[in-house]
Here is the input.
Amino acid sequence: MADLKTFRFVYGGTTLYFGPEATEKAKDHLVGKKRSLIVTGKRSAKDSGALDDVLKVLDELSIERKIYDKVRFNPTVEIVEEIVEELNSFGADSIIAIGGGSVIDSAKLAATAFAEGRKPEEYLRWIARASKHLFLVAVNLTHGTGTEVDRYAVATITRTKEKLGTAVAYPDVSIDNPKYMLTLSKSQTMFTSLDALYHSLESAVNPASNVMVRDLSRVATEKIREHLKSAIERPRDIETRYMLLYASMVAGIAIDMAGTSIIHGLEHGLSGVVPELEHGAGLAIIGPEFIKLLYSVRPTETWEVMRALDPSLRPSPDDYEKAGEALRRFQESVGFNLRLSDYGFNEQKIREAVEVSWPLYDSRRFPGLPEMSKEDVVSILRKLL
Here is the structure.
């Protein structure tokens, strides 16, 4: 049996409690609060048991609460604006996000927009830079996004179909409790873990990477390789959930330090155009093809992480095809075999997604990317229909 102790960790602006006894640790940080808005999705907070645990803490501290449960995956600015309205009408002095990346990201944006009196879209377009936010507790329910320990938030601007990310706020307190992962479905287990895998791969290859980022990314990749199949086959195994959650958390630190790359940028275009596309699934569909491009231009950095998937890889651009196949084989080994057409994509929607995401293919943001035209990218994505 692995060491599954609960521990405390401080990073950025977040005090993180990680482990099976993590939830009760939030109590000390909520002393003195009067009204908390709880932000969730429709079911996961209840099904996981996290909502009951949080309500127990609030009852012990006599904190009034109101629940907003309308967040869905690939959240929009309209959802964030509704949360801001709820914060205002309730007179909240704190916000507790119970969910995965969509819920926590929406709460981050809302907590900041509420505190600064601005529109969420202003942060997504980098018109406004965040400087303060309402006190925020994040109770994480997936082992995928790492958003409980990073400063980023992502939401879609509906009218333009732009899915954008921005640096907005670290949660003040975050809870990573593996017992809440036990109710994740097979697809949620797979997609969220693959999201963490791509955080590892892309942060390592980003020009802002460093030796610490690559070490964190390699550890995360090793643990995902070792434990993901087991979690799918034995979903109630707390040890596998603990390790996948740890992998997701350290990968979240890696992207906070270095950012992601073009695979995330293109996926945001795809799921902005087709919101039904789960983020992790979108990454896994396009990732093996686009990791080849990254391996060809930054082979040493990519190899440092990808050797966890295939020890025979060399830090040479000549191995770019082999790297793509190694990633594809791993995904197939855990049961992933989806294509863009499974989500209703056709060539027209691919072109729309490339157009929306093209500004991310900017050498100023991702120096060193191979020279490609929009038609080149469309051609690659067409093969994935």
